[in-house]
Design a protein that fits this description.
By secondary structure, the protein is an alpha+beta fold. It is built from five helices and twelve strands. The longest helix is centred in the last third of the chain and has 13 residues. The model has no long low-confidence stretch (mean pLDDT about 95).
Length: about 220
């Protein structure tokens, strides 16, 4: 299990949805080490990789969405299905991994990356209009949602540096069965699963509050 590439966003115009004029979804692999830090709260645009940022600050960035990871194996499956090349970073991910089943990782699972960085799985990625516009695939949000291979957001527990080829070691797996995939399905197409998410204490407080409201409303 290792990092295949570390990807940082290049600001570009965002013509695909109402909102910020710029987007950082165009992430490209970078050479050498990249500093990983604990970002500021959501709303600042800060994320966990130095040199990267988000512009839709209402929905992205902050402590619980510090780093986004997606598996190269899943990118390859999408590339075959879509009939197009998908380079590392194509889904806007900061870390493209190999040998890691990101979607079966547990919410709250902790990874050591390289010698000093520790990250914790916080929640799945929910697709947005910018993602669909970026890929230029008709009906992409629905298609991505139905596939339920969303990749994972992680928070920074111990900062440091990451680089391509860094090994990934699972340090901790919590005592529940809420995977990234399960949480994604519950939050999107299978809301009857929502009550089962509440055992995952590492879910962002914002998500847990929303889940409680939806469960209470029936």
């Amino acid at each position: 299990m290792q990092v295949r590439s570390v990807n940082v966003g290049r600001p570009r115009p965002n013509p695909w949805k109402a909102g910020p004029e710029l987007t950082g979804i165009d992430k490209r692999p970078v050479e050498g080490p990249v500093a990983v830090v604990v970002p500021g709260a959501k709303g600042t645009g800060e994320v966990g990789l130095v040199g990267d940022r988000v512009y839709d600050v209402k929905h992205h960035g902050g402590v619980d969405q510090a780093v986004y990871a997606y598996a190269r194996e899943d990118l390859d499956r999408w590339a075959a299905e879509l009939g197009r090349t998908l380079g590392d970073g194509s889904f806007g991910e900061n870390l493209t991994t190999v040998g890691v089943d990101v979607n079966r990782a547990l919410i709250g699972e902790r990874w050591r990356i390289g010698s000093d960085v520790v990250l914790e799985i916080s929640c799945p990625r929910i697709p947005c209009g910018t993602f669909q516009g970026w890929l230029q695939e008709r009906g992409w949000i629905k298609r991505f949602t139905q596939a339920a291979v969303p990749g994972a957001y992680l928070r920074v527990i111990e900062p440091g540096e990451v680089r391509a080829t860094d090994p990934i070691e699972v340090l901790h797996r919590p005592d529940h069965q809420v995977t990234v995939e399960f949480a994604f399905r519950a939050l999107t197409i299978e809301p009857e699963l929502l009550p089962q998410l509440l055992v995952a204490d590492a879910l962002p407080a914002e998500d847990r509050a929303q889940i409680r409201r939806r469960v209470a409303a029936g």
